[in-house]
Each structure stands twice: as C-alpha cells, then as structure tokens.
Amino acid sequence: MASTPLLHHFIILLLLLPFQHNPLTLAAPGGGHWKLLLANTGVSAMHMQLLNTDRVVIFDLTDFGPSNISLPNGKCRNNPKDLTLKIDCTAHSVEYDVASNSVRPLNVFTNVWCSSGAAMPDGSLVETGGFNDGDRNARVFKPCSDNSCDWQEFNTVLTEKRWYASNHILPDGRQIIIGGRGQFTYEFYPKRTGADASYNLPFLSQTNDPRIENNLYPFVFLNVEGNLFIFANNRAILFDYVKGAVVKTYPTIPGGDPRSYPSSGSAVLLPLRNLQGGGNITAEVLVCGGAPKGSFTSANNGKFVGALNTCGRIQITDPNPMGYGDHAFS
C-alpha cells in the first residue's frame, strides 16, 4: 500500500474486474460511466502509482506464489529467501500504458508486501520496506517511454525494518519514512551521511493500541510552513522533523474511534485556500472512514462490525484548532 501518501490512484482498480465480452458500462448519477479496459493485468494491485509518463506501475507481494503473468525472455527470479517459491518465473509488478491499454512485466525482487513509498522530484518512484527479505530495502523505478526501465533494488539501506510505514517527500528532496509495525521511529531516505539514523517519535507508541495497533500507515501531509501533520489512530500532531519536536497537538477526532490501519480509513489534504493573497494560506485535512473501537478483535472472533460512515475535517493551519467538523456520508 504505496504510501505512502499516501494516497494512490484508484482509477485503474477496475482493471481487476472479471472479464466481460462486452465492455462493462455503468451509468453514474452525475454523468459519465465506467468502462472495463483490461480483463487481467496479471498482478494484483496491492500498490499502484501514476507516473509522469502517463503510465501506472502496479506491484504486489512476492511471497505468495506465482502471479498471472510471466517475466519476459524466460527470466526467473531466484531468491533463496522467498517463503513460498524459491525460483519464480512470474512477475510481481507490471507497468500499465494508458495510451496503448497494455501492460508489460517488471522484475521486483524482494517482498514489497505492505511497503510504502512516494514519488521523487524527478518523477522516480521510491518504495521502501516491506516484509521478510524486503523490510530494510529500497527500490527505485525511474519512468521511461521506451520500455527499457525496470525496478532497481538497494539492499539493507534502511536503519529499521519498515512494514506498514508511511513516506512523504520533503522540500529538500529526501523522503521521511514514519512508523511501521513495531517501529515507533522515523528516518530519512536517501541518507545524507552514513550516520543518518532513525529517531524516536513517542507519538507513535502513544497511539498504538496493544495487540491491535490502529496506528499503521499513518496519514502524513506537509503543512504550508514546512512542518508535518501526522495523524495516527484517532488524533494528530504537527511535527517539526528538522528539530525533532512536536509543535502542536490536535484534538481527538469526534467519537474517538480509530481511523488508521487496520481500521483502514483514509485521508486527503484538501485544495489550499488563499493562494492568491487576501489572507493567510489555509490548509485542511479530511479524514474519512475507519472502524468502531474493538472492531479488529470482534472480526477475529467472527463478528463483523460495520465501518464508520463519518469524516472529520480540520484546518491544520489554525493556530488554535478547536476540533474537527463532523460529516456523515452514505
């Protein structure tokens, strides 16, 4: 779940819909329609990212057996650390070309299951962490238009194992990598020096629900003054990553229910206001969905609770934010 920013492009998820002989067209109340483009991309879109070449890179975990598309030219992935298939001749990543409506297989070597990533200023996608042999690795995909590009892998470049972390691009061109399962720290990539380490972030341990977590894949947004808005579980802070200091603590979201993974809500930074002058620039974050407290435990016991149908909206640039506006949806 590239995060990352986290926020990825869901438009192409319809590629994984079952095959129809006639294009699937569903009328929408506001106009427009859905159309089935491809019956099968060969790889499940656990993670996907729109590139600056108007192509989409899609990738999935590597430790669960073969995919539905072969690597090109008889290539095989020989990985003694793979938990399921040591020699695997199928691809676990593809690039979808919007213009030609076609996919080509890519070679991602280590496990990117629930890794995280973000796009760099030059358009490259950096994906960090994952599971098993990939939890301290970084992978870079530099887009191209001639089908010559593929994943590059950099082994053991992270200070900590990162699984279910979040990445965000910074003004200096680096990425900050925040959290992950059992990791209440953050670090930067690429490293500036060999001594660039990981740093404690107590907010992550404070938002960790024992045996449930509810603070994985935290929502991270760069605020207009350069600090980071970090939301985990049911609350958020404004964090100065340069000084390693919490600048502001925001109120708990109405109801106090968890919104982060595994309760799996989502968040977005809304369009900035007052960009043309006439006042201070205003930034707002919208957090939607999630699950009632205790839902994870209930699900493990066979009782499935409905997801939350509410959103919280907060002005993160407000010097003294009083709370979230509460919005319901259906």
Automatic annotation (TrEMBL):
Residue ranges constituting the Glyoxal oxidase N-terminal domain according to the UniProt record: 46-321
Annotated signal sequence range: 1-27
Pfam families to which the protein is assigned, alphabetical: Glyoxal_oxid_N
Coiled coil: none
Highest rank taxon of the organism: Eukaryota
Sorted UniProt keywords: Signal
SUPFAM superfamilies: Galactose oxidase, central domain
InterPro entries: Gal_Oxase/kelch_b-propeller, Gal_Oxidase_central_sf, Glyoxal_oxidase_N
Name of the featured protein: Aldehyde oxidase GLOX
